[in-house]
């Protein structure tokens, strides 16, 4: 494993990152600064407080998703499980079943919609019977918003070839401009990064670190470019080492080891907290993530 010294690390964000009232450059700088603070916490948690935080650059593309659909949907504000299209509802069920919840039997959901019932079932599995009812309610709301945001943002990315190409160009340009050898891709960003690195095979990385990745979900694998063959995705040609980290309770990172469908070198599991199961900041604050990154930006 080669190290990159104190080079730049490019971050590729996931769902719900549209910053209103800011230019793309301003938004990217705000996101990168917040990520640097969280990575500093992660280094401390890993016993690596002596390691300086590298230069972080956010490949910001949220505004490109918002150009051709309702921007308020970017963070799922006002959108609920009941607002999903029939196609999105079908994909939600694939997600929930992959996470271990089957559709309710007749009469089992009571007054709830079947999807909302299924999310509540997941909360019971994650939080346990002893968790206070208010805590379970808050977690159910959080997980519902995550499901809606992921489905809507994924559609926004995959539905138009021109927009998809532009988003990938944004990520590729960030890597080239900073001669980055490490990319950290979170959530939907792992899909964007995977496709970008295939579309731009000249990009060479020492490390691709995916966090909270939904790449292995069948509903999403069907939309990938390049599409997996016989259920198997290929390694981007310029990636030397690929590490994937998933939180034990991350609803969107299912299956956690990407279904065994991608040539990842190391899979690891962390626990970033009951009410912070998917955010980039939560993952960067985890000692496991910081420890995976540190060898690539220290001499």
Question: Mind explaining what this structure looks like?
Answer:
It comes from Streptomyces viridochromogenes (strain DSM 40736 / JCM 4977 / BCRC 1201 / Tue 494). This is Serine peptidase. The chain is α/β, with parallel strands linked by helices and 299 residues long. 42% of the residues lie in helices and 10% in strands. It has two domains: 8-68 and 158-296, Rossmann fold (3-Layer(aba) Sandwich); 79-152, no CATH class. It is built from ten helices and six strands. Strands 2-1-3-4-5-6 form a six-stranded parallel β-sheet, with helices on both faces. The longest helix has 26 residues, at 133-158.
Uncertain spans: 1-5, 68-77
Q: Give the beta-strand count.
A: 6
CATH architecture of the largest domain: 3-Layer(aba) Sandwich
- Full CATH superfamily name of the largest domain: Alpha/Beta hydrolase fold, catalytic domain
What is the first-to-last residue Cα distance?
12 Å
CATH fold type of the largest domain: Rossmann fold
User: What would you call the quaternary organization?
Assistant: single chain
Broad CATH class of the largest domain: Alpha Beta
The dominant shape is globular
The residue fraction in helices comes out at 40-55%
The helix/strand order is EHEHHHHHEHEHEEHH
> In what order do the strands lie side by side in the largest sheet?
2-1-3-4-5-6
Overall pLDDT: 88
């Amino acid at each position: 494993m080669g190290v990159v010294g104190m080079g730049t690390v490019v971050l590729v964000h996931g769902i719900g990152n549209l910053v209103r009232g800011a230019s793309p450059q301003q938004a990217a700088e705000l996101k990168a600064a917040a990520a640097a603070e969280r990575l500093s916490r992660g280094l401390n948690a890993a016993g690596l407080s002596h390691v300086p935080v590298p230069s972080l650059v956010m490949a910001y593309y949220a505004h490109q998703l918002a150009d051709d659909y309702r921007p308020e949907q970017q963070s799922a504000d006002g959108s609920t499980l009941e607002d999903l299209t029939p196609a999105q509802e079908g994909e939600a069920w694939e997600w929930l079943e992959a996470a271990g919840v089957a559709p309710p039997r007749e009469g089992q959901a009571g007054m709830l919609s079947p999807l909302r019932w299924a999310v509540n079932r997941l909360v019971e599995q994650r939080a346990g019977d002893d968790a206070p009812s208010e805590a379970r309610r808050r977690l159910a709301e959080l997980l519902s918003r995550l499901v809606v945001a992921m489905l809507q943002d994924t559609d926004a990315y995959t539905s138009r070839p021109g927009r998809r190409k532009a988003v990938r160009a944004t990520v590729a340009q960030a890597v080239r401009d900073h001669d980055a050898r490490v990319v950290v891709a979170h959530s939907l960003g792992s899909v964007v990064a995977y496709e970008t690195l295939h579309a731009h095979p000249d990009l060479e990385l020492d490390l691709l670190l995916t966090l909270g990745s939904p790449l292995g979900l069948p509903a999403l694998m069907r939309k990938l470019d390049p599409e997996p063959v016989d259920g198997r995705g290929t390694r981007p040609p310029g990636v030397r080492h690929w590490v994937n980290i998933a939180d034990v309770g991350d609803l969107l990172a299912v299956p956690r080891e990407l279904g065994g469908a991608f040539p990842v070198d190391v899979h690891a599991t962390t626990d970033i907290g009951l009410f912070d199961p998917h955010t980039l900041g939560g993952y960067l604050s985890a000692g496991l993530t910081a420890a995976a990154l540190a060898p690539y930006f220290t001499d």
